[in-house]
Design brief:
The chain is of the alpha+beta class and about 450 residues long. It has 5 helices and 21 strands. The radius of gyration is 42 Å and the shape is elongated.
Length: about 450
């Protein structure tokens, strides 16, 4: 008896609600399996493709969303009141720490400085006279030329004159500082924004509105949030040695920009053969894009009670100022390395009626010939996706044979209580070997 069957069909291509076709296939298999020697590999058995899973080393990454923030932000405010006489910077330009940004009319403060200087000179003159009088009385009081009280008064006057000099010096220093404050300088180096005041505007000491804002953009911070449940999951993975414990403090981070492109920088390409920078035909260095790695500055120890997340701050170099404040980005953190990572094609996974992830594992025993397997469903735990593959954290071991294509044939074989003929995948996961996409008719041995 001959019957036709197809292999290489996955669960998306097979229509289970066509009982007529299913009945014919099942009847054909049952009839063919009832004749001949079933111990030998049969071409009339349902044919499927499988892959043998292998453990590999894989970095465990977490992708978190967040926004950029300046490394340093400083509002420029006046320390003294007055009229703006001149603005000495270009809006949007880079400024240096201590660079003069505004000039406030210094007339009143110059006068106060001159007055304090004159008061100091007067106090210094008084202290000279008081000192001479005290010295003279110290000599004559010994022969009772002056009374003891007059000598004491002279000494006290000398001390008061010296105190007046100190007070005058402090007043002069205050006047000098206020005069210097008429030159409004940049408190930090960075990029200055627009000016909120113009020449001729009146500014007051300690006013709430900033005259301008200076932001340092290199380096720059990226503030992201992480769910506390993810933190607990990673902690359990380290404790159970699913990840390398020595990677906990060596967290690396990269960025994805708003358009999905990686945050990278052009660097000289290294020739793998020589280990030196590669050169083009003109002798110029060949450049290539390399991802910029950030450093995790800190992880907040407080969990937000309303959202269940905690803040993480990452520092990135930003010499070209590609990153601007308040940009939306996604940070990819490499939390550790899984040395026993197992990946399977996503199309190998189905969900049962309880929502669990299930794969078909092909097993063999001593009664089955080579290439013939018994399919068995197995519940697995999935973690993250890598392209069109799932990372399996439990349920599979290295060496297991996982069904890739042929789920309808497996269902028919299970219903008929017969094994399947398995063909190993070649050329990568999910790619059936050439010439095995369709099964040829096989004749039963009577």
């Amino acid at each position: 008896m001959r019957y036709a069957k197809t292999i290489g069909e996955d669960m998306h291509d097979f229509t289970w609600h066509k009982p007529f076709i299913g009945g014919i296939l099942l009847a054909g298999i049952l009839l063919s399996s009832g004749c001949g020697d079933t111990a030998a590999p049969r071409r009339d058995l349902p044919q499927v493709t499988y892959m043998e899973v292998k453990a590999e080393s894989y970095p465990v990454q977490t992708e978190l969303s967040g926004r950029t923030s300046p490394y340093t932000v400083s509002d420029v405010r006046p320390q003294v009141s007055g009229i703006i006489k001149k603005r000495l910077f270009t809006e949007g330009a880079d400024v240096k720490e201590g660079q003069v940004l505004y000039l406030i009319d210094p007339s009143l403060y110059q006068a106060a400085f001159d007055n304090a200087k004159a008061n100091l000179m007067k106090a210094e003159a008084n202290v000279a006279a008081a000192r001479l009088l005290a010295e003279r009385y110290r000599t004559v009081v010994k022969v009772n030329a002056v009374s003891k009280q007059e000598y004491d008064n002279a000494v006290a006057s000398y001390g008061q004159a010296k105190a007046d000099v100190a007070a005058a010096q402090a007043a002069l220093e205050t006047a000098r500082i206020n005069l210097e404050y008429t030159k409004v300088t940049s408190p930090v180096s960075g990029r200055i924004g627009r000016s909120s005041v113009t020449e001729g505007a009146l500014v007051t000491q300690n006013q709430p509105d900033a005259m301008a804002t200076v932001q340092q953009l290199n380096p720059i911070y990226v503030d992201v949030t992480q769910a506390n449940t993810d933190r607990l999951r990673l902690r359990a993975a380290f404790q159970n040695r699913l990840l390398r414990p020595d990677q906990m403090d060596a967290v690396k981070a990269t960025l994805k920009l708003e358009d999905g492109s990686p945050y990278s920088r052009m660097v000289p390409k290294i020739d793998k053969a020589t280990g030196k920078p590669a050169l083009d035909a003109n002798g110029a260095p060949v450049l290539e894009a390399a991802p910029v790695e950030g450093v995790v500055e800190f992880r907040d120890i407080t969990v937000d009670p309303s959202t269940g997340v905690r803040a993480i701050r990452i520092r990135f170099d930003n010499p070209d100022e590609v990153l601007l404040p308040n940009m939306y980005v996604r940070a990819v953190l490499t939390e550790g390395v899984n040395d026993n990572a197992i990946f399977i094609p996503q199309k190998s996974v189905v969900r049962d009626n309880r929502g669990r992830a299930v794969v078909q594992v092909l097993t063999t025993n001593s009664t089955l010939p080579a290439g013939v397997f018994n399919p068995q469903p197995r519940v697995v735990t999935l973690d993250q996706a890598r392209g069109n593959e799932w990372l399996v954290t439990s349920g599979l071991a290295s060496g297991d044979k996982v069904l890739v294509e042929g789920l309808p044939q497996v269902q028919i074989a299970i219903a008929a209580k017969i094994p399947v003929h398995g063909v190993s995948v070649s050329g990568g996961a999910g790619t059936p070997p050439a010439g095995t996409s369709d099964a040829k008719p096989a004749e039963n041995a009577k």
